[in-house]
Amino acid sequence: MLKTKNEICALLSLTPDGLNKLIQKDKKFPRPIKFGTSRQSHAYFDLQEVIEWVESKKAEREEV
User: Fold this and answer.
1) With contact defined as beta carbons under 8 Å apart, do 13 and 22 qualify?
2) Number of compact structural domains in the chain
3) Which of 5, 37, 44, 55 is spaced 20 to 30 Å from 29 by Cα?
């Protein structure tokens, strides 16, 4: 299921700017899917990929 940037921000308790910084800093964070070539095209995230990313972060936490 695809979710908008704002929905992912709400899910992760981040601001849009915080999500942008996360995307830039963490190369493993799922990249958005854009339907168009314009910079203003809507971007969507695959919810399952985001959930898997969160689970991987939990696993990393448990390894420490």
Assistant:
1) no
2) 1
3) 37
